[in-house]
Amino acid sequence: MRTYLVTGGAGFIGSNYIHYMFRKYGDAIRIINVDALTYAGNLENLKDIEERDNYTFVKADIRDREAIEKIFAENDIDRVVHFAAESHVDRSIVNPEIFVETNVLGTLVMLNAAKKAWELPDGTFKADKKFLHVSTDEVYGSLEEGDTYFYETTPIDPHSPYSASKASSDMLVKAYWDTYRFPMNITNCSNNYGPFQFPEKLIPLIINNALQGKKLPVYGDGKNVRDWLYVDDHAKAIDMVQENGRLGERYNIGGHNEKQNIEIINIILETLQEMLPDEDPRKKLVSKDLITYVTDRKGHDRRYAIAPDKIKEEIGWYPETMFKDGIRLTIQWFFEHEDWMKNVTSGDYQKYYEEMYKNK
């Protein structure tokens, strides 16, 4: 049975990845989920699989060398999928230090622990081991007018403390390949959306605010462009890179769903109007009059767009979910999980787990 160590598995993308892997492989794999349960980590995301015999949760911080090395010492880890990171750009502008500590130093701890566990006396590594570092398209900076796409060969040019910290962690992982031939891959993905996404992010924020008749904040002129990828497509790509990616390589994962932020908001409002029954009182609250333009974010990149040519050609992955379908799936999920949203926005989810783990 192959054992996966997933960091940040209680977060949005990490929890969706774990669900995907159990749907695909069932009892043929074992997953150890390591998460510090900071504000974006929520074990409610994994409630329906927490009793599985082949699933283990460990509350630990990736910066804690002793805790991470203990996990490797007590388990024969075959795959590391490293999601754990501070990821919200606005928070990085206010407090850059925690982003460097978690995203850079935490990644270094993970690399060293895996290297220590996998390295053989002759400096080579045990067979069939791999470390996959999950990163972002934001490390490439911003595309200007006339530019095409981000490719794996695009120079790294981060513009926010968040993207700078992720770029730094990417470079560390690459350096371990160049220096030690450490078995690794890096994936750089476009904006994800789907179930379990923390409501400070654009799509769940707009859904939640619109249903309550609250203002819908739009940075600047709303014409910043992002490439959107449904989270299940991302999970599939990560699995395929783990199994078939060439060691030492970086793979871009993009959705071919470029849209301006204001387009996203209008699509959400239109889709909510279509999906809400006429008798639902929230239907009257959903209105484009809620759109409110606010001061632009500092260092706000104008356009991101990923070219996933390499992963398509080498591995055969392609995005399966068009935005018009993915956004309906996402809205339907939020309709069916209103308690989850209430627990997150109220902070109750944190109180429950703080009590559970305070003496552990």
Automatic annotation (TrEMBL):
Pfam families: GDP_Man_Dehyd. It is an enzyme of class 4 (lyase). One of its GO terms (molecular function) is dTDP-glucose 4,6-dehydratase activity. Keywords: Lyase, NAD. Its EC number is 4.2.1.46. Coiled coil: none annotated. It comes from the Bacteria. Its cofactor is NAD(+). This is dTDP-glucose 4,6-dehydratase. It comes from Anaerosacchariphilus hominis. The lineage of its organism: Bacteria, Bacillati, Bacillota, Clostridia, Lachnospirales. The gene is rfbB.
